[in-house]
Design goal:
187 residues, alpha+beta, Peptide Deformylase, five-stranded antiparallel sheet, 26% helix
């Protein structure tokens, strides 16, 4: 089932997500719905707060970026992250133009660490601790921010925030026509 993606301005996008356990109701179906929603919107990551649920869960599938020839090692990078914790950020900080399904039609340069170490549970609640770098690290950091109540626009310069202010207000009021189902704060 395709879920509505909550747009900029919704309070749920600013809430810090709560940890969940294996008893979380209908978790398997919720994860399937998140992937379906992400694919429908042509995204490579989606966090639970973006579909209105303030829990510490996000999904990623970066294979579309590999298909575009950007990074071949992204082909098999499909994961579910439950209750993740970034325990280290290291490496060079590099800028890349990011976008977000909750903030359509705005793309900005965001500076992030090139490597992270993260602990998380997968969809079977098996614990992992892994190191990711490059685009994988960037995608994870972007989605991790969502479960912390942080948006990529919080990481851009004040000047760029000002440039995008009117467009962001239009998003919050639902005065846009995205190619996927959304729920807006102003409607």
């Amino acid at each position: 089932m395709i879920l509505p993606i909550y747009g900029y301005g919704h309070q749920v996008l600013r809430e810090k997500g709560k940890d969940i356990g294996p008893e979380y109701p209908n978790l398997e179906a919720f994860i399937e719905n998140m992937f379906e929603t992400m694919y429908n919107a042509q995204g490579v990551g989606l966090a639970a707060p973006q579909v209105g649920v303030s829990i510490r869960l996000f999904v990623v599938d970066a294979s579309p970026m590999a298909d575009a020839g950007k990074d071949a090692d992204l082909q098999d990078f499909k994961r579910v992250f439950i209750n993740p914790e970034i325990i280290a950020e290291k490496g060079d900080i590099w800028a890349y133009e990011e976008g977000c399904l909750s903030i359509p039609d705005i793309r900005e340069q965001v500076r992030r660490h090139g490597e992270i170490v993260i602990r998380y549970l997968d969809e079977k609640f098996v614990a992992h601790e892994e190191t990711f770098d490059g685009m994988k690290a960037r995608i994870i950091q972007h989605e991790y921010d969502h479960i912390q109540g942080v948006l990529f626009t919080d990481r851009i310069s004040p000047m760029r925030k000002n440039v995008n202010k009117a467009r962001m207000q239009k998003i919050s009021q639902g005065q846009i026509d995205p190619a996927y189902r959304m729920r807006f704060a102003g409607k």
